[in-house]
Amino acid sequence: MMRLTQKTINVLIGVLAAQAVLAVLLLMPREQTLDPLVTFDFAIVDELRIAGGQEQEDGLIELFLNDENSDAWAMPGGLPVDASRIESLSEVLERDRWTWPVASTSDAAKRFEVTDENFQRRLQLLAGEDEIAMLYLGTSPGFRRIHVREADSEKIYAIELAAYDLPLKQDDWLDKSLIEAPAGIEAMGRPGLWEAELDGEGEWTLPNSSLAAKRSELASMATRFETLRVIGVSEEAPDRAPDLSFEITAAGVNVRYDFYRPEEEENEDKNDNADESEDAELSASIRDTLVKSSLRDEYFRVSSFTVDQLDKTLEDLTEALAEEADS
Description:
Elements: H1 6-27, E1 47-52, E2 61-65, E3 73-74, H2 83-95, H3 106-111, E4 121-127, E5 130-137, E6 146-150, E7 156-159, H4 170-173, E8 185-190, E9 194-198, E10 204-205, H5 215-226, E11 232-233, E12 244-250, E13 253-260, H6 274-286, E14 289-293, E15 299-302, H7 304-310, H8 321-326
Antiparallel strand pairs: 1-2, 1-4, 2-3, 4-5, 5-6, 6-7, 8-9, 8-12, 9-10, 11-15, 12-13, 13-14, 14-15
C-alpha cells in the first residue's frame, strides 16, 4: 500500500479547499441591481392626469399647480385641491421608489392588471409639457397596497397605496374648506333679523337687542363658519331667493353666505297615502343644501345638518329675562 507523504497530503488539502471555495462562489446568487420605480424628484411635477380602466365610468381627472401660487394644486376652473392627497402621493412615491420588484413577466402584468390595455388607474406625471412618468396601477396584494408598473419598464412593484387614493371624482379631490370664513370673526348676522359683534373684551354681544346674548351659542356659530366644510360642487344654480343668509366680517373682510334648502318634491298623485308623504319629507330632509359664498363663484353642496345648526333666530341667541333675574 502506497503511503502518502506529508507534502502530498498538504497538496490534496489545498486542492480540496480551492474546490470548496469555487463551489461556494458558483452557488452564490448573482448580484441583483435594485432599479427604482421612479427616477425623478416629485418636486418637479406640476401636472397629474388620472384615468380609470375600461370598466370605470368616470373620466379623466386633471390636477395642476396653480400659476398664482406655486405650492397650491388646482383643478380646471381654479378649484383648489386637497393638499393632503398630493402630499400623501408624493410621500409614497419617494418612500417606496427603492423596493424590490415582485414580478417582471408579461403574464404577471396581465394578472396584476398593470398592462397598457388593462389597469385600474393610470397616473401620468408631467413637468411642463414633458411626460416624466406613466404609472399603471392594478390589483391589490394586501391592505393599502397596490401593484404598479412604470410604462417603460417590465418590472412590477407593490407599493403602499390604494386605488381609492387616486379617486376619479372631482369632489373627492376638492379642498372642502375652500369657503370657510377667515379666522377671527368679529361680527356676523342675519340681515333683517339680528346682528352680533365682539365687544372690547372679546365677548359676543347683540347691540340691537335689550336682552343678554347667549355668548357660548354665538361663539359656537362663529366656529362653525370658520370650519365650514362643503361636500362638493353643485351642478345646478338655484333660481330663487335663499332660505337663509348671513353676513360675516373677519380680519377686515366681508363675506356673505346664502343657503338654499332642498325643495320638497311635488306629489303628483293627490291620492298618495300618508306613508308616502312622510317618505317624501324624509327624502327632502336628507338631501344636501346648496350654498353660495361671496368667496367663490360656484355653488356648493353642504350638509343640511350643518345648516340646521346655523339656523338661529334672535330668540335662540338671547337669554330669557327670567334667567337674567335668577343670575
